[in-house]
Structures are given as structure tokens and as C-alpha cells.
Amino acid sequence: MELMKQILSDSNIALAQSRVIGNKGASGIDKVSVEELREYMSSNWSDIKSSILSRTYRPLPVRRVEIPKEQGVRKLGIPTVVDRTIQQSIAQVLSPIFEKEFLSHSYGFRPGRSCEQAIVQLLSYLNEGYEWVVDIDLEKFFDNVPQDRLMSLVGRVIQDPDTESLIRKYLKAGVMDRGQYAPTEMGTPQGGNLSPLLSNVMLHELDLELHRRGLHYVRYADDSVILVGSEASAKRVMHSVTSWIERKLGLKVNAEKSHIGRPSGLKYLGFGFYKNSITKQWASRPHELSVVKFKRKLKRLCKRNWSISMTERVDNLNYVIRGWINYFSLSDMKYKMEKIDEHLRTMLRVVIWKQWKKPKKRAWGLRKLGITDDLAKRTSVCGNRYQWMVTKTCIVRAISKKALSQKGLVSCLDYYIYRHTLKTN
């Protein structure tokens, strides 16, 4: 009961509520939005708290949402904003308790830890000579977690029946998919505030086993790679660890996606790896698939038929550019950023040329950007061969990198150099 008092304390609930509101996100099946959360909690929290303490509280089912990914879809479960608040309040109290248990090899969903740290550790192992990769893929991990085994691991640490009962209710809350209810006898829904912590609790057992065997590994949530020194060791580890995961954790390893290989064939957390020909050291760079996805995002934001202001378009582009480069800034990608920068400016020139529409407006725009009156007039009547116009005429000089920068556009290359310098110095 002492633990539950901490979870339901006014200060802890207030902090959880602020975080849920700050994270924004969609509403659950009750349609209460994050904007309505404070008012709803003010009117109903006393009754909700009493029902939790008496063990009569029943969380609402999560709302099923499917997010496209490279292969298939990722199924998320969106709890109501009230249940998100309660889950967040549980996580805030339990996380420090479990942090004392967790090992240093796991980096996902933990305070003060990041993808970047995982990549740095992986590179360290590679450069120590552990150049064979065992990449183990857990099949639909969040959907397949055995709930009884998970709750046994939770109870072993917190030893609080009231809190354990509430967590189990969230696991059993069920899901609403296209208006149909389905029970959840397995798994922990991706999208809930408790799921990241519970995934680490479950996979902490794997960490302990790999540590006991003296293996070099990196884990970020359910993405694990083990680094060994030879192909024979890699085959032995793949077989024995796969067998252990399925026997001891009750999880299923995806045989098709799990593989043994060299670092140059690895895609981990969006990164690829290569050996620098000069330093003879392994280094990271954005995986080619990550680069392709980035280019597609920029292209979508530069659609000619998207009727928004240039200021709004630039703001959207800057948001994507900064986020992507911040994530990959430790990597080597100067040449790629230079090429993407050039292509982005070409796409924006097309947008601007189309927005100007008529020859009179086009001549005016070119003159304003420093093109002589005669050349501006001749260019303005050349028509709508967009790709040719923005690469073969004075439009390139007019709508220059400097001009776009003055409009607020972040240069991919310049921002990368800035962020990379901060990280490496």
C-alpha cells in the first residue's frame, strides 16, 4: 500500500498529468483529449482514486492504431488520456526502483540513455576486434510477452500486491479495433506509458543471461545485437541464445530476420557501419534505407500542389531536417548532406516558380532577387518546364542557398557540420 500511496500522491499525479499533456497525442476510445484532461481530472479524480485503492477500477480498452513501417504495419494501442496519466504515474515511481536492477548494456527507454550511446558502445566492441554480428529479432515482441511471466518478474522486485494488481489490469484491458473488442491475454500494448518499462523488465532477464556468459552485446528495447570474434562463435551463440529465449522467456525468435553477418551488412537503429579506409576503424553512417526515408519526407513536403505558404513549408522542412540530423549527427554523412541540400533547393525552386505563376510575377520575383531586368523578362516567359527551368536558367542564381537561408531554411550540410562538430569535440 505504501507504494500505491506514492503512485497516487497529488504531486506524482500532477507531474504525470503534465507529461501526458506535454506529449500531446491522440485520444483513446472515450474521446477525451489532452486539452480536456485537466478539467476531466479535476472533476473525476477523487472517484477514480477511490476505485483504484479499493481495486474496483477498470481501465478502458486501448484504441488500435496501425502505423505503416518498412515491412507491414506496427500495431499501437492508444489508452485514454486518464489511463495514460495513471500509467505514467506508475512508471515515475517504479522506474527508479528498476533502474537499480538494470545493467549498463541496455539503452532504450531509460533516463540519461540514448540510441547514440548504444551506437558508440557497438562501435567500441567492433574496434576491439569483435567483428561478427549476431542479430536476434524477437517476433512481435510487444504482442507476445507472456503476461504471467512478466508479472512474476515485476512482483519479484516491487513486492506490492496493490500495484501489481493495477498493472495486470492494464495488461488485461483489451483492445478496440474497428469497433470490435478483443481481449489481451498476451503482450503489453505498444503505445502505453508503462510498456517501455515493462519491456525492459522482461528483457532484463536476457541481459543477465548474456552478461553471465561474458558476451559483448548492446540492447535498445527489443533490438539486440551480440558481437563475437569468429563465425564459429557467432553460430554457436545464435543457436544457444535463441534456444534460451524461447525456453526461458517464452518469446519467439523470428528465424527469417535473425542472422549472422559482418558489420557492413548490419542495420541497427537506422545506422549502417563501414570500416574507414584511412584509420582502419569501424565507423557509423545513416543506413541507406534511412537516407531514402529522409529524402521521401523532404519530397512530400515539397509537393508543388500543396497550397501552403512558403513560411509554413520551410517550418515543416526545418522540423524534419533538424530532427533527422540530430539523430544521426555522430555519423559520417557530409557528402550525403551536400547532395540532399542541392536537391532540396531544386525542389523548392520548382515550388516557388509554380507559385509565381504568371510571367509578370516571375519577372518581378527574379528582379527582386538580383537578376537584371532584361534577363528576368526573357526567363519569365520560358514557360512551365519546371525541372529544366530551375536547373538551366538564372533561377539557380536568383533562388540561391543564401536567398533560401534568408527565408529561414536550414541547410542540411551546415546544420550537420554544426551538430557533428559539437558531438566530436
What does this protein look like?
- By secondary structure, the chain is α+β, with helices and mostly antiparallel strands.
- The protein has a 4-stranded mixed β-sheet, with no helix packed on it.
- Helix 2 packs across helix 4 and helix 12 packs parallel to helix 19.
- The mean pLDDT is 94.
Task: Summarize this structure briefly.
By secondary structure, the protein is an alpha+beta fold. Helices cover 56% and strands 12% of the residues. A hairpin with a 6-residue loop joins strand 9 and strand 10.
**Share of residues in strands:** 5-15%
Distance between the termini: 49 Å
| Count of helical stretches | 19
Give me the Rg, rounded.
26 Å
Question: Any chance you could write out the topology, listing elements then pairs?
Answer:
Layout: H1 2-7, H2 10-23, H3 37-53, E1 62-68, E2 73-78, H4 81-99, H5 115-127, E3 132-137, H6 141-144, H7 147-158, H8 161-171, E4 175-177, E5 180-182, H9 195-212, E6 216-220, E7 223-228, H10 231-249, E8 259-261, E9 271-275, E10 282-286, H11 288-301, H12 310-328, H13 334-356, H14 359-368, H15 373-380, H16 386-392, H17 395-398, H18 401-406, H19 412-424
Parallel strand pairs: 1-4
Antiparallel strand pairs: 1-2, 3-7, 3-8, 4-5, 6-7, 9-10
Helix pairs in contact: 2-4, 7-8, 11-12, 12-19, 13-16, 13-19, 14-15
